[in-house]
Amino acid sequence: MSDDAALLTATFVVDPFHPAFAGHFPGRPILPGVALLAEVMEHWLVQSPQALQAQWTFDAVKFLAPVGPGARLTMTVRARVRGHGFEVRHGNTLVASGQLTVQE
Fold it and tell me: pTM higher than 0.85 for the full model?
């Protein structure tokens, strides 16, 4: 991720009753990656309404650590040459990273 100033920083708590936890995985609930990406996109669009004017794709996504119920996550989005890079952290732990790119 570049050292440029963040375009967006958002902190949110993963709903401990999120329906994805019911089957993923019994006895050790982990938020599926697709649900985490939905959270990223939701916060990006809510806090950057101008982004609604484009279609976005996720590129080069890496899931680096599990996310459990009630986790307090911080998402940071920074401008890159092509699109926007994002990171999601749980405290100091990087749990996911990748790029949001405008679909051409």
Answer: yes
- State how far the alpha carbon of 22 is from the alpha carbons of 12, 25, 96, in Å: 20, 7, 22
Nearest to 96 by CA among 15, 24, 18, 14: 14
Q: Is 90 noted as a catalytic residue in this protein?
A: no
Q: Out of 18, 24, 84, 90, pick the active-site residue.
A: 24
Contacts of 103 (CB under 8 A, 6+ apart): 54, 55, 56, 57
What Cα–Cα distance (Å) separates residue 96 from each residue in 49, 53, 73, 76? Answer: 23, 25, 10, 11
Contacts 24+ apart (CB under 8 A), 82-91: 83/59, 84/7, 84/44, 85/1, 85/2, 86/40, 86/44, 87/1, 88/36, 88/40, 90/65
- Residues 29, 21: contact at Cβ < 8 Å? yes
pLDDT digits (tens, 9 = 90+) for 65-87: 999 999 999 999 998 877 889 99
